[in-house]
Amino acid sequence: MVRSLSQWTKTLSFPARISPNRNSKDCNVNVLPITPPPAPPRNKSTTSTSTSSTMSSSSSPSSSSSSPTPPPNVPITEISQIIYPDPESEKAIMGSLVFCIHHKQGCKWSDELRKLKAHLNTCKHDAIQCPNKCGSQIPRVMMTDHLAFTCILRRAICEFCNVEFTGIGLEEHAGTCSSEPIYCESKCGTRVLRGRMSIHRAKDCAKRLRRCPHCAREFSADTLAVHGATCPRSPVPCPQRCDAGPFARADLDAHLRDECKALTVPCTFKEAGCRFKGPRHLLEAHLETNTSAHLSLMVALSGRQGQQINMLKSAMAKLSTNYTGTLLWKISDWSVKMQEAKTKDGLELVSPPFYTSQYGYKLQASMFLNGNGPGEGTHVSVYIKVLPGEYDALLKWPFSHSVTFTLFEQGTLGSGGGGQGGVAESFVPDPSWENFQRPSTEPDALGFGFPRFVSHELLNRRPFVRDDTVFLRVKVDPSKIVAV
């Protein structure tokens, strides 16, 4: 780009080492535009005086710096004459050492001022007009990149469709080229040409939605096969290869259970011991021809089940047996049982058996509601008897523990608030009594106790019966339990 002299001088930079000596080649030069001195008078004396004044003035730095600016619209040739009023000044200024006006951009050139113009014509940092006439001023060093990438009037070919565009046209074309490969919008991971994306999504995309032909639910194409293996409405053949079918997968179990004639089934008396196993259509004939054998098997099964029931009852009885040495006996429906005892002679109620300890004596209480012996018809009689136990061979005989019977009053406290009120009777067994010797397999029918434990009159007068229920406690003294 061609520059005028005034444009050069506005951006010049001089080294700091330049000497202020005017006669030196490296003198400090003021390059600001100056105006010529006023025209001297035409007479001779005045001319010489003015000339000397002018020379004096030009030799003085202060007068130079205070010179007026040139008039506007002055031609370049005349401005150079104004800047350099004499050859010595021109030589000094043009010989000054200067840096390139682009030294801040990285240009390292420095030389005499007179060589600056020629340098700027080749300086790689100097801006020139784009040869494509896009209107941009680009440094020479950046012109190649500008012409290749940023010039809006450059000619460029799309790398995908090979169509030529201008720079601005290529920018508009980018992102819309139908030949550019892009990733599928459904995120299946496939790269497809932009122009074929709609066809890919409709026919080839693994993430496109497809409807199951059996249950009408929608799945992505890559999971439809997995669904088909478990779809409840998918038709499947009978695994027994019978003549019926195919069936919906959800109905197959019902077909095998109820209808399939080819399915191998066991005899309905399998639990009784019948070992027949064959196709369902032969089962009916088997049942008709083996009726007596099946009956025998059922009888044997019934016997085995009876034994098992007895074993379970025995196990349940052991689990529910009391091993604390204290029995709290709850007698319900008291009025009905009392009325029945008065009408039936010798009616006896017996309690659940209990043990004095884990491996102790086995005992059982009994009660005659209408009395027994001396208390018959007037009193309630209570007794205790020793039953054959599992550990009798290890126990000390005769039985010698003290036993206490207590009939509780319900809903009241004893005198002084010291506990539940009631009637209590106790005894210590005599070693000579037959009732407390080691029992045989058949226990004593009566045992030992109190025929006149509580009278009917006292039973009705005090609150022993409430809600038609009576509570009797039988307690064995633990201090006299014989340890095994």
TrEMBL record:
<feature type="zinc finger region" description="TRAF-type">
    <location>
        <begin position="226"/>
        <end position="284"/>
    </location>
</feature>
<keyword id="KW-0677">Repeat</keyword>
<feature type="domain" description="MATH">
    <location>
        <begin position="324"/>
        <end position="476"/>
    </location>
</feature>
<feature type="zinc finger region" description="TRAF-type">
    <location>
        <begin position="173"/>
        <end position="224"/>
    </location>
</feature>
<keyword id="KW-0863">Zinc-finger</keyword>
<dbReference type="GO" id="GO:0043122">
    <property type="term" value="P:regulation of canonical NF-kappaB signal transduction"/>
</dbReference>
<dbReference type="InterPro" id="IPR001293">
    <property type="entry name" value="Znf_TRAF"/>
</dbReference>
<dbReference type="GO" id="GO:0007165">
    <property type="term" value="P:signal transduction"/>
</dbReference>
<dbReference type="InterPro" id="IPR012227">
    <property type="entry name" value="TNF_rcpt-assoc_TRAF_met"/>
</dbReference>
<dbReference type="InterPro" id="IPR002083">
    <property type="entry name" value="MATH/TRAF_dom"/>
</dbReference>
<keyword id="KW-0862">Zinc</keyword>
<dbReference type="GO" id="GO:0042981">
    <property type="term" value="P:regulation of apoptotic process"/>
</dbReference>
<feature type="zinc finger region" description="TRAF-type">
    <location>
        <begin position="118"/>
        <end position="171"/>
    </location>
</feature>
<keyword id="KW-0963">Cytoplasm</keyword>
<feature type="compositionally biased region" description="Low complexity">
    <location>
        <begin position="45"/>
        <end position="67"/>
    </location>
</feature>
<keyword id="KW-0479">Metal-binding</keyword>
<dbReference type="InterPro" id="IPR008974">
    <property type="entry name" value="TRAF-like"/>
</dbReference>
<dbReference type="GO" id="GO:0031625">
    <property type="term" value="F:ubiquitin protein ligase binding"/>
</dbReference>
<dbReference type="GO" id="GO:0005737">
    <property type="term" value="C:cytoplasm"/>
</dbReference>
<feature type="domain" description="TRAF-type">
    <location>
        <begin position="226"/>
        <end position="284"/>
    </location>
</feature>
<dbReference type="GO" id="GO:0008270">
    <property type="term" value="F:zinc ion binding"/>
</dbReference>
<dbReference type="Pfam" id="PF02176">
    <property type="entry name" value="zf-TRAF"/>
</dbReference>
<dbReference type="Pfam" id="PF21355">
    <property type="entry name" value="TRAF-mep_MATH"/>
</dbReference>
<feature type="domain" description="TRAF-type">
    <location>
        <begin position="173"/>
        <end position="224"/>
    </location>
</feature>
<feature type="domain" description="TRAF-type">
    <location>
        <begin position="118"/>
        <end position="171"/>
    </location>
</feature>
<dbReference type="GO" id="GO:0005164">
    <property type="term" value="F:tumor necrosis factor receptor binding"/>
</dbReference>
<dbReference type="InterPro" id="IPR049342">
    <property type="entry name" value="TRAF1-6_MATH_dom"/>
</dbReference>
<feature type="region of interest" description="Disordered">
    <location>
        <begin position="16"/>
        <end position="77"/>
    </location>
</feature>
<protein>
    <recommendedName>
        <fullName>TNF receptor-associated factor 4</fullName>
    </recommendedName>
</protein>
<dbReference type="InterPro" id="IPR013083">
    <property type="entry name" value="Znf_RING/FYVE/PHD"/>
</dbReference>
